Amino acid sequence: MKRTETRQCKIGSLPLGGNDHIYIQSMCNIKTSQVSAVVSQIHELETLGCEIIRVSCMDMEDAQAIKAITDQIHIPLVADIHFDYKLALACIKAGADAIRLNPGNIGRRENVEAVVKACKAKHIPIRIGINSGSLEKDIHEKYGRPTAEGMIESARRHVRILEEMDFYDTVLSFKSSDPLLCIEAYRKASEIFDYPLHLGVTEAGTKMTSAVKSSLALGNLLLDGIGNTIRISINGDPADEIILAKELLKACHLIDDVPNLIACPTCGRTQWNMEPVVNEIEHYLQTVHKDITVAIMGCAVNGPGEAKHADIAIAGGKNEGLLIKKGKIIEKIPQDQMVQRLIEEIEAY
C-alpha cells in the first residue's frame, strides 16, 4: 500500500516519511531518571517489536539520564518536553534522537532559536503534537469546541515558527480522544502539510476501549495511505501498545513478519477447554517474527475445513485435537500436549 508522499527526516538511523514503512512506537511509564527500570522496560518493548521509544522529561534529572539510557538501548529515543526550552537543550546534548515539543509553548523567540540551532547541529527532528483537548485559548474560543479546523490552525502556528527559522525536520501529530475527530484532522493535515505524520488516539482508555478507538481511527487512516509512525495509547502496560499496533498493521496488510492467529469463538459444539490453549499460544506468538498463520478451532465439525488454509492448526475434539499442517491431518494430540506441539511446529516452520 503506497503511503502519502511526505518529506523525510531521520530519527536516529531510521528514515521517517518518504517511504512505505510505518514505525511502531510507545512511551515509557516510569520516571526517566530511574535509568535501570527504564532500560529494562525498553528492552522488553524492543523484543516485542517497538521501533521508537519516547520518554518524558519533567526535570533536569530526567534530561541528564538520557545518555545513560541511550547507551544501553538499540532503538531511537524521543524526549518529551513541555514549556522549558532548557530541558530540550539538555536532552539534545544528552543524546536524544528526536524531541517532542511545541515551539509556541516555550516562551520567547530566542528560546525557540536556541532549540532549533541545537537540533540543526545534530540533525534531530522535532515532533509538534497537536491535541484537541489542549488547543490555544483563542482557538478554542473561536471554534467553541475541539474541531479539525482548530487543530490545523494550531499546527500552522507552530510550523510557521520553525519554517521561519529554516527548520523542516518536523513531524506532526493531531490527536484526540474522539476517533472520528482524529480521522478528520489527519485527513485534512495530509492534504495541507507535507511533513511525516505520527498517528495516535490520545487518552484512549483501557486495552479494550483503546483497541476499538484506535482500530477505528488509525485503521481508516492507514488504509488511506496516511501515517508514517503510530502509537496505540493504552492505560497500563506499554507492552500492550506494541502488541495491538502489530495486530493493526498486520490486519491492514502493512507488515508481514507478524504471526496471524485464528481462533473460533467457541459454541455448544466445543467439547474441550480451548481458551487456555489459545491464550498460551497468543502470548508465545507475541515475540515470534514470522509470516505464519496459526489456527485453533473448537470442534471437528467445521475445524478441519476452516483450518486447511492455515500453515499450522489444531481442530479440537473431546479432550484432544487434530494437528493439521497446510491442510493435511498429521496426528492426534491430547489437550495437555497441544501447546508444546504447536510451539514445536511454529519453531520449525
Automatic annotation (TrEMBL):
Binding, [4Fe-4S] cluster: C264, C267, C299, E306
User: Which cofactor(s) does the record list?
Assistant: [4Fe-4S] cluster
Question: How is its cofactor bound, per UniProt?
Answer: Binds 1 [4Fe-4S] cluster.
User: What biological-process terms (Gene Ontology) are attached?
Assistant: isopentenyl diphosphate biosynthetic process, methylerythritol 4-phosphate pathway; terpenoid biosynthetic process
Domain IspG C-terminal residue range list:
260-347
Q: Which terms does the record give in the GO molecular function aspect? A: 4 iron, 4 sulfur cluster binding; 4-hydroxy-3-methylbut-2-en-1-yl diphosphate synthase activity (ferredoxin); 4-hydroxy-3-methylbut-2-enyl-diphosphate synthase activity (flavodoxin); iron ion binding
Known InterPro entries for this protein? Dihydropteroate_synth-like_sf, IspG_bac, IspG_bac-typ, IspG_C, IspG_TIM, NO2/SO3_Rdtase_4Fe4S_sf
Top-level taxon of origin? Bacteria
Which reaction(s) does the protein catalyse, per the Swiss-Prot or TrEMBL entry? Answer: (2E)-4-hydroxy-3-methylbut-2-enyl diphosphate + oxidized [flavodoxin] + H2O + 2 H(+) = 2-C-methyl-D-erythritol 2,4-cyclic diphosphate + reduced [flavodoxin]
Q: Which Gene3D superfamilies match?
A: Dihydropteroate synthase-like (3.20.20.20), Sulfite Reductase Hemoprotein, domain 1 (3.30.413.10)
Q: Which SUPFAM superfamilies match?
A: Dihydropteroate synthetase-like, Nitrite and sulphite reductase 4Fe-4S domain-like
Signal peptide feature range: none
Q: Where in this chain does the record put each IspG TIM-barrel domain?
A: 6-245
Q: EC no.? A: 1.17.7.3
UniProt keywords, alphabetically: 4Fe-4S, Iron, Iron-sulfur, Isoprene biosynthesis, Metal-binding, Oxidoreductase
Q: What does this protein do?
A: Converts 2C-methyl-D-erythritol 2,4-cyclodiphosphate (ME-2,4cPP) into 1-hydroxy-2-methyl-2-(E)-butenyl 4-diphosphate.
Protein name from the UniProt record: 4-hydroxy-3-methylbut-2-en-1-yl diphosphate synthase (flavodoxin)
Which organism does this record belong to? Answer: Catenisphaera adipataccumulans
Taxonomic lineage: Bacteria, Bacillati, Bacillota, Erysipelotrichia, Erysipelotrichales
Gene encoding this polypeptide?
Answer: ispG
